Amino acid sequence: MKTIKQIFGGNLQQYTMVLALALLAIIFNVVSDGRMLTSSNIQNLISGNAYVLILAIGMVMVIVIGQIDLSVGSVAGFVGMVVAITCTNYGWPWWLGLLTGLATGALIGAWHGFWLAKIGIPGFITTLAGMMIFRGLVIWISKSISVPVPDQFQVLGAGYLPEWGPAWTGMNNSTLLLGILAGGWFVASQLRHRSHALARGVESPLWVALVRIALILAVVGYVTWLFGSGRPGTSFPIPGLILVALVVIYHVITQRTRFGRHIYAVGGNKAAAALSGVNTARTYFLVMLNMSFLAAVAGILFVGRATAAGPSDGTMWELDAIAAVFIGGAAVSGGIGTVVGSMVGGLVMAVLNSGLMLMGVGADQTQVIKGLVLLAAVAFDVYNKQQGRPSILGHLMRSFGRDATSTKAADREPQESVEVPAATGPVVDAADTMPETVEAARRES
Amino acid sequence: MKFRTASVLVTALAASLALTACGGGREGTTDDGASQMASGSAAAAEGFAPDATIGVALPWLGTQNWKEAEVMFTEQLTEAGFSPLVQAADNKVPQQQQQIEAMIEQGAKAIVVGPVDGTQLGSVLDKAADAGVAVIGYDRLIENTDAVDAIVQFGSVRTGELQGQSLLDGLEASGEGPYNIELFGGGPADPNAPNFFTGAMSVLQPKIDDGTLVVVSGQTDFTQVATQDWDNSKAQARMDSLLSGFYADKQIDGVLSPNDGIARAILTSSEQAGQDLPIVTGLDAENESIVSIAAGEQYSTVAKPTQDLVAKTVELIQALQKGEDLPAADETADNGVKEVDVYALSPVVVTLDNAAEVFADDPDRLALLEG
Question: Which of A28, A303, B188, B360 has the fewest Cβ atoms within 10 Å of its own Cβ atom?
Answer without folding.
Answer: B360
